[in-house]
């Protein structure tokens, strides 16, 4: 859900759904499904597991909407449930979320690669290769969860700072700080990778 100006619409739908209006709840699900799925996918990486989280999220949302006092915070409420469900799933699986390099990260991944590329000709050449795409995927997975999630939501999913703030439940300033650190760390790790490749080729 790209336009957070829909807060009033979600507020209205949530208010109606809280009284048992199933049609309103279905509309609420339609409006928030994309955001919930993207967050779940960034936390878990595997589409099937993300879909499980989405289903559980909306089941819990339906059961607990009546407890939400400020319906203007509906999207944040749903995303908080998503984060809790995804965290519970990771805990049950007994693992940290691990990306599979074969799992599509989204059409925006090329933009992510471009965003951390330096101006050096050698690195530009390397960044055009499939080898580097795989390297960037691996480096992204090494980031702390809080940095990686913000980076992917911004660079791959194209969310605004305000949207990410709502989705991950932190102030916009924190989003900006995490994004800055993620980009910096990613660039540093990729630079080390480039130098290692150049030494091997020498």
Based on Cα principal axes, name the global outline.
elongated
Oligomer: single chain
| Rounded radius of gyration (Å) | 19 Å
Q: Terminal Cα separation, in Å?
A: 48 Å
CATH topology tier name of the largest domain? Arc Repressor Mutant, subunit A
Q: Domains counted in the coordinates: how many?
A: 2
The CATH superfamily title of the largest domain: Winged helix-like DNA-binding domain superfamily/Winged helix DNA-binding domain
Give a count of the beta strands, DSSP E runs of length 2 or more. 0
Helical element count? 10
Average predicted confidence as pLDDT: 83
CATH architecture assignment of the largest domain: Orthogonal Bundle
Q: How would you sum up this structure, described in words?
A:
The protein is an all-alpha fold and 202 residues long. It folds into 2 domains: 4-93, RNA polymerase sigma factor, region 2, helix turn helix motif (Rna Polymerase Sigma Factor, Chain: A); 109-201, Winged helix-like DNA-binding domain superfamily/Winged helix DNA-binding domain (Arc Repressor Mutant, subunit A), CATH 1.10.10.10. It has helices at residues 7-17, 22-44, 47-64, 74-93, 109-115, 121-127, 130-142, 145-155, 161-168, 172-201. The longest helix is centred in the C-terminal third of the chain and has 30 residues, at 172-201. It is elongated and about 70 Å long. The N and C termini lie far apart (48 Å). Residues 99-104 and 118-122 have low confidence and may be disordered.
